[in-house]
Specification:
Blueprint (H helix, E strand, L loop, with lengths): L2 H6 L2 H34 L9 H20 L1
Helix pairs in contact: 2-3
Length: 74
């Protein structure tokens, strides 16, 4: 967004946009952290995923994705 456009938006609305963005970021941060950490784990130590713990990893990933979908829908 260029500065001309930003300057035409009332300051109160600019504040609200930033506030809403920060709230959204707070909501999605845990989910993003789970997904990023598991991706890194798979890159550096793929052997840590075993048949015994695979279900736990999948549940955590599914929960993170569900949380992101919920944030996107609200």
């Amino acid at each position: 967004m260029n500065q001309e456009v930003v300057d035409r938006i009332p300051f109160e609305i600019q504040q609200r946009i930033v506030y809403d963005f920060l709230l959204l970021r707070e909501d999605i941060q845990p989910s993003i952290s789970v997904l990023v950490s598991y991706r890194k784990l798979l890159q550096v130590a793929p052997a840590t995923i075993t048949p015994d713990n695979c279900q736990q990893f999948m549940q955590s990933i599914d929960q993170a994705i569900e949380q992101l979908e919920w944030c996107y829908q609200t």
